[in-house]
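Continuing the series of single-chain predictions for the mutant panel. This is the parent chain; the variants come on the following pages.
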Amino acid sequence: LGPGADAPWVGKIEALLASEPRFKGRCGLMRALGHHRDDEAARALLVARLDAIDGPVADRERAAALAALARLERKDTVPVFERFAGPEHAPNVRSVALSGLGSLARADGVLDKDATRRVREQLERWLRDPVFQVRVSATSQLGRLGDPKSAAALRRAHGAEALAFVRRLHREALGKLKAE
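Parent structure:
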């Protein structure tokens, strides 16, 4: 079932996902899907899985599916990450969605300059989120992105932040920004 396998592997993983009773088993299967970068079937199965997940560990499983989706490094997954970054989702899901957006913006040749700018602007908006895990993820991704245009937003967030460790992350992110 590794990269380069024939197309039937997707059907096998789909059947295993439907029948696997263990959370860790399902997450492992989704991680396997994340290794098939050029495979539309892997993307489609992960996206479909995001909406089908339910049960007591649904948020943890959604986060695992989003992490696998991020490894595919596909531009057509941006709307999926944007949707799961919304406030109606659990903080861990939102954080992984923001990490996915950040990794797409950093990946060579995945997003054009305009799409990268939009992702940066979205991450800057999440710096003001009421949930600290989301602010941490947005801060981290902006630092990794390294765009100096984020400096003003990071400084504003730093000035308004109540949590000392998040302010420290703001300073670290500011230190990672490239000089203009």
